[in-house]
Amino acid sequence: MASHRVLPGQPISVPPNAPAPQLGGGIYVRDSQLRASLVGEVQQEGPTLSISRVRPRPPAINSVVLGSVTRLSPLQATISISVVDGVPLPAGEEFTGVIRSQDVRATEKDRVKIADSFRGGDVVRGVVISLGDARSYFLTTALNNLGVIFAMSEAGKVMVPVSWKEMRCPETGRLEKRKCAKPE
Amino acid sequence: MSLDRRRINGPDESFPPVFALDGLQGTLASPRKDRSPTDIRPIFLQPGLISQANGSAYIETAKTKIACAVYGPRQSRNAAYSETGRLNVEVKFTPFSCARRRAPMRDAEDRSIAVAIHQALVSSVRLDLLPKSTIDIFITIIESDGLDGCVASGSVAASAALADAGIELLGLVTSCAAAIVGRDIWLDPTEGEARFSNGTLVLACMPALKKITSVWQTGEMQVTEALGCMDACQEKCTEIHSVVAQALLESPSLK
């Protein structure tokens, strides 16, 4: 596919006898005509046509998000989402997410204690499971690679994970409980 | 006019200095002096001038100068859950934008322009992809030469700014105004021309899809005249579309 810039509304031509391509971001179909909806270059990866613009976007279902814990209650932890799918959001335009206690981990869901999983200020990696209610997106950390990725100890030092549910302070050596993300 | 106590208020009443007769007084020169009735004023359009905005555009058509900034999509505050996104358009006049000073407060005129621009844009934005989010469009009219021109240029600038912001659009919106002066159709009327016209019409469309997004008509107009205006505007919109396309294709902010 020739790589030149297209504009919103511009028809995108495909070879007449080629199989219909799958649509990625930035492309839509109207009256069986493929058209661009973003300014950019059309890229083809396998069967998928897309126009990519690396721009901050709101979370969608299955987005991987990073955020910091702003509020804890026995039922849920509130997260201020600052990175969506690896793209940081502009300062002051964070989205609000909520991790309910049943979404913290996959096993023993009814024994989860939010206070033993997160603390205020922790940076958490989560996945959006639902657009949630008017106020917040619902997130889950019920996968090995999801959970707390950065936390400070009570002594104010950056802690290191020692198991999936504990982190150690390098200064005092004390263990604190967190739902840790498995380091990559 | 209510008083804004947070600002240094000028005298209650002030009047602009009186100069020799210009276009606003007396009668209009008919036929049109400086351009033919079907000509529009030259357009300068530059996307991406406001660095802190997500997307922006500046448009200048002779004495009409408009800056437009797009922020978002951001999370809707104090609003019920909605499956589709919202488009929020705000229009502000600078105090020095018109012949007579405008107090820096929102009034009915700002809002009617904002509503007209919202109408022109809303069907071009793919709001179904942005649940629970709001896109804010702030339009500052730096200098105004006729409301119809402001609505038309504001819509063009806002659409270019949305494209600059990387928000998914069905197509670029362009817009053109027309006025009935005597029996003739004058495209892109200035303030003076609009004042002496029987009626004006602003048409917004997506030339790429051949769809009209909004028609805004004021004053008195025969049906045939209105249809003639719409045809003439649609033709000009196609030309304006190539100006917008050129500006976006050459814009360095979209690299």
Tell me what the structure shows.
The complex is a heterodimer of chains A (184) and B (255). Chain A is mainly β. Chain A has two domains: 5-51, RNA polymerase II/Efflux pump adaptor protein, barrel-sandwich hybrid domain (OB fold (Dihydrolipoamide Acetyltransferase, E2P)); 64-177, Nucleic acid-binding proteins (OB fold (Dihydrolipoamide Acetyltransferase, E2P), Beta Barrel), CATH 2.40.50.140. Helix content of chain A is 0%, strand content 40%. In chain A, the strands form four sheets. A five-stranded mixed beta barrel of chain A has the order 7-8-10-12-11. Chain B contains four helices and nine strands; from the N terminus they run ββββαβαββαββα. Chain B has a single domain (43-250), classed as GHMP Kinase, N-terminal domain (Ribosomal Protein S5, domain 2). Chain B is globular. Chain B is of the alpha+beta class and 255 residues long. The relative contact order of chain B is 0.17. The mean pLDDT of chain B is 89. In chain B, 26% of the residues lie in helices and 28% in strands. In chain B, helix 1 (108-122) crosses helix 2. Chain B has a five-stranded mixed sheet. Chain B has a four-stranded antiparallel sheet with strand order 7-6-8-9, sandwiched between helices. Classes of the chains: A mainly beta (184), B alpha+beta (255). At the A-B interface, loops of A face strand 3 and helix 4 of B.
